[in-house]
Amino acid sequence: MNAGPVSRAAVEITAVLARWVLGGAFVYMGLTKALDPAVFLKLLHQYHFANVPVLLNSVAGALPWFEVFCGLLLVAGIAVRGTALILGLMLVPFTFLVVQRALGIASAQGLPFCAVKFDCGCGTGAVWICHKVLENCVLFLLACFLLTGRGRRLCVRFSLLERT
Amino acid sequence: MRHILLEALLVAVVGAFLAFAANALSPRGLKLSRNFFPPAPSPATGGSLADGLKPVASSTNSLSATESLVIRLRQQGLQLINSNKVAELFRDPRIEQGLVIFIDARDEAHYQSGHVPGAHEFDYYHAENYLATVLPACQGAQEIVVYCDGGTCEDSELAATFLLSANVPKEKLLVYGGGFSEWTNNRMPIEIGPRKSSQMRQAK
What we know:
Chain A is mostly helical. In chain A, 69% of the residues lie in helices and 4% in strands. The longest helix of chain A has 31 residues. Chain A is globular, with a radius of gyration of 18 Å. Chain A starts with a helix and ends in a 17-residue tail after the last helix. Chain B is an alpha/beta fold. Helices cover 38% and strands 11% of the residues of chain B. A 5-stranded parallel sheet of chain B has the order 1-5-4-2-3. A two-stranded antiparallel sheet of chain B has the order 6-7.
């Protein structure tokens, strides 16, 4: 029995689902922030990562829409690997900042790390930090999986630069 | 790999352009040039500050949020008032003549769902939309109560500071630290919808 085509099909379907999950997650998280950027701005301000107002305001005002844009590209299957690379790279500093803030809260309140719950500004409201880290790791792995070039089915234009 | 990097760069450039455009076009968009969190001024020499306090708009480990708020407001010549004073001002007959006014520093959705009766809407993060009505009201008032949600909400403080920078005399500005949460908990009257809609609801 030849399992090759079956497993290849399974991998392709998994990759398509990965595209939709990763893209859908960013569309959702981006939209909740884009529709009320002032709330996102206040949350970002608590991270103290930017002292220059225009930089802080740019991240608060534009980043959510950028997330929506990238999420929609993935859902539609456009520039899949480039978009996955961007989202994967974005998840690294996001997760680092969230963990750093959680460590600060844990230290200030004398809590175990996983008992920390706060609104990290990710667009999903207050979250348990360990759940958020796990979620971000899963999303990062999905992005890495998409970088392998699988999931070309149901794509509008998988690659912008390669000949189809 | 080079294709992927170029593709990522293209997505990033186009995405950034569209994102900034969307922010500019969105009615909820943010003004990029505005400093929404101006630093608190340096404290005057001597006075009531404890040793080692930083004159910035953030709590320290050794102070409660209220204590920090009082200090920051004092640094700017502003006053923090409690629920008794707020209730007294709400019942002051001068409110009918606009000599006592309330300013709600929360966003539109929160304002519409319930506010102090007669309070002026003033979403601090979109202040430019409200200045035409709020500033004249402030200039005509003798006492101005600014509030937001209360607790850790700093929007009332930021809004009061903003009004101060718009030449509203600091003697008039009173920050209600307990905010709308405390107003509601005290079962005070709540108006819903637009200002002076006369639609009231009961605090739960």
